[in-house]
Amino acid sequence: MAKNFLILISDEHRRDAMGCMGHPIVKTPHLDSLAARGTLFTNAYTPSPMCVPTRAALATGLPVHRCGFWDSAHPYDGSIESWMHRIRAAGTETVSIGKLHFRSREDDTGFSRQILPMHVVGGVGWTIGLLRQDPPSYPLGGELAEDVGAGESSYTEYDSAITDAAEAWLSDPPQHAWTAFVSLVSPHYPLTAPEEFHALYDPAAMPPPIGALPDHREIGNLAAYFDYTRHFDAERMRTAKAAYFGLTSFMDACLGRILAALEASGQAEETVILYVSDHGEMLGDHGLWTKQVMYEASAGVPMILSGPGLPQGKICRSAASLLDIAPTAAQIAGAAPDSAWTGQSLIDLATAPDDPNRAILSEYHDGGSSTGAFMIRWGDWKYVEYPGQEPQLFNLASDPHELHDRAADADVADVLGEGASRLREFCDPDTVNARCFADQAAKIEALGGAEACRTGYVFNHTPAPVEQDVTEKDPA
Question: Closest by alpha carbon to 433, among 127, 59, 70, 47?
Fold first, then answer.
């Protein structure tokens, strides 16, 4: 029985951008090798297609609407017990290396030690996104298209430092049970890839985006707010895609170094390895860039589980979620799961037959949206509800690129009703939507009002920490 758990998490890695997922261009040899000796989950999802709420949900094991860390100005602060708290109390050492996107390293979030942590700006986060009911214009839409091409960025330098730190920690790991959460930032923008990896991809060979901006009011709101697409002409789009794939290969190389360090430590046979990302990246598909929406490229995440006694070379088609990490960590640590957790151990999912009936929820309540978005995925179907607006419905078996919204089709009215019913097994969307706006109004007031939020922290991506070697003990 494995006693250790190594969680490798990237940022903004879309699920299809791996060789093991059949991508014809992207080179990810280390992830492909991990999948070959483990289980590849082909239908895994984020709790929310945005960094800060997802990482809070991942930590607490609770959906966003239940933990209440709604958005990029509600970062996790340790006030709700995390699975890290729970397994630390059971005797497992918990260490994080790299990006966390919690409120502050001063909070006890459950880690025994944090190495090179990245937390939200100023302990506050992205405040302009709180202004959803009367949103100001977002001034940085052009920045995404400007920072593309070959070269180093503060994020690739940060990832190199994280990789060095992970190798150093694994060179002398504890001899008792441990869980390590190693969190890279790539392939998150800025879309600037180190020359060695950028050279793997010819911009002229990049495939065009899939689909056009849909005629849907809420998705139009998001597209108009973030305003990324109009800054990309065809050449700039191809350059950006090549850089994104280059960053993906750079990230894969970093993971390869970390996995080699685990092997050299002599503890690989006692360690379960999980690779995931926090959300995906649209890359121009459906006329959209970055995330925030419920299309597969944004809400879907890569997921690979490998370790002693686990299936090798298996494809698991059961729907899965980052919320499944909490019960997985508890199972490996021998700790009792929290009865409030909604997830299921990935070890159990990987060793069981596929379950087409399992339903997964994702939700979005952050900047640019005028109402909440609630996605339910089960079987071949995806249902998305927007309180006060029209829903969406897609059959992912016959329409994997989500080009044909079936919500208005009479012949699938029963499926539309099933999606609405399945959603209400998780929550009432109208009630959640109202509670979220009330909490955000209270946060706006606490931060000094709408003008303070509009001018406070406005950025496209959280700056990398300036410290070269930041470590500390969380209060236990």
Answer: 70
